[in-house]
């Protein structure tokens, strides 16, 4: 598993396309959202913790689409290249190889995301003289952003089993807007629920509060009050969904083997 | 490592019977598996390599039943496999590719791994190209990388599926010679539809046709299937109507035919010694189709 993880990480992180697409989308994000001021209203941009939560809010609105799309072609790569025959004849556990691939690819694809986020934290620390921003950026990335990415990565592993990677990317972007970004009153949506991957429950439940049910919206049973417990529940849901997706991928592989 | 299958059957979804009740016994050494395209060779190779589960029957390799998870792992520990459609990671160098596969095969000690990779790159005559990216390799060079990866863990069983298809004559001869040299005390199972490759490397072979085993034994026995049935006939007239034409070579004003027929197909036909290809064709002529 470690060898696969290391290989997959290096192969993905060295892709120029990965960095290029992230940079392009980031440029649009920085030009259209208050990424430099970190002033989203309702939070004090002078407070390093609030500033890092705002930076997370801004980046997670857009960059997960790049993340999911850039992962989509990796699960089928071994088969496309014809390497799967050799790999499958190796006694290393196939489940371990899947996990290694998943962890390596997801970590690599999240690397530009993390670099942008840490870059903003470093800039903030220098300009504002608040070194605490560096620590908060790590805390926020791990608690607010990473669980959602774990789920989205697994989704991007499972989706291309059902539809071609190109179509999956279109559907993934549509899912991202529908399930995570649109206002809850517009239509039934997973936005602002514990199934949304945007990390709101972690951000609000652990750091801010003031987030919860929207009785006027559909699916409101999925919007408990944001508390430390519901934040932990959200992390658990993301990990459980990721595990379920990976189990599906493995079952699909077993079925293909027969 | 001895390979034994008993009533081995593989039926794919859609009821395609790729392997049908195959009883095979492969001893140590170089062993050929002949058959036309679609005969079931690749399915059999994939079952023996633990990539496919048979629908029914037994497969025992070196005393391990490969249909059980423990047996599969035990066999794969001593297996080198070169699939028909070998692919590589084009952005890796030959050395890096082998390093990755070696890690997956459990060669964890770095210095021993590097030494082994260096040795194998020399064995397959790729030492000079070790640090070139695989995207620039020819088909023959890629097959040699494939053999190197198959040999990483010093396997007792080497399964090579159609390794010479698409290679130029020189590369083909070099490749099959290398396989013969590797056999030694290993079992090397060479699956191919090219009779010449088996003729030049194997003492024993099996023949598959439409998923069934139609022959297994020494190459000499297969040759003898055509004994007394191979004829040469030179004529300027029409092609002989009787017998199966194996070769036709223009010669002066006429054509020299090589035929397989139970009896002389023409008063001027001369009997000739059969080759393995003649034996194979004679067998396939009477095999159930």
From TrEMBL, chain A:
<keyword id="KW-0812">Transmembrane</keyword>
<feature type="transmembrane region" description="Helical">
    <location>
        <begin position="20"/>
        <end position="38"/>
    </location>
</feature>
<feature type="transmembrane region" description="Helical">
    <location>
        <begin position="133"/>
        <end position="159"/>
    </location>
</feature>
<protein>
    <submittedName>
        <fullName>Uncharacterized protein</fullName>
    </submittedName>
</protein>
<keyword id="KW-1133">Transmembrane helix</keyword>
<feature type="transmembrane region" description="Helical">
    <location>
        <begin position="50"/>
        <end position="72"/>
    </location>
</feature>
<feature type="transmembrane region" description="Helical">
    <location>
        <begin position="102"/>
        <end position="127"/>
    </location>
</feature>
<feature type="transmembrane region" description="Helical">
    <location>
        <begin position="231"/>
        <end position="251"/>
    </location>
</feature>
<keyword id="KW-0472">Membrane</keyword>
<feature type="transmembrane region" description="Helical">
    <location>
        <begin position="166"/>
        <end position="186"/>
    </location>
</feature>
UniProtKB/TrEMBL annotation, chain B:
<keyword id="KW-0813">Transport</keyword>
<dbReference type="GO" id="GO:0016887">
    <property type="term" value="F:ATP hydrolysis activity"/>
</dbReference>
<dbReference type="InterPro" id="IPR003439">
    <property type="entry name" value="ABC_transporter-like_ATP-bd"/>
</dbReference>
<keyword id="KW-0547">Nucleotide-binding</keyword>
<feature type="domain" description="ABC transporter">
    <location>
        <begin position="3"/>
        <end position="235"/>
    </location>
</feature>
<dbReference type="Pfam" id="PF00005">
    <property type="entry name" value="ABC_tran"/>
</dbReference>
<dbReference type="InterPro" id="IPR003593">
    <property type="entry name" value="AAA+_ATPase"/>
</dbReference>
<protein>
    <submittedName>
        <fullName>ABC transporter ATP-binding protein</fullName>
    </submittedName>
</protein>
<dbReference type="InterPro" id="IPR027417">
    <property type="entry name" value="P-loop_NTPase"/>
</dbReference>
<dbReference type="InterPro" id="IPR017871">
    <property type="entry name" value="ABC_transporter-like_CS"/>
</dbReference>
<comment type="similarity">
    <text>Belongs to the ABC transporter superfamily.</text>
</comment>
<dbReference type="GO" id="GO:0005524">
    <property type="term" value="F:ATP binding"/>
</dbReference>
<keyword id="KW-0067">ATP-binding</keyword>
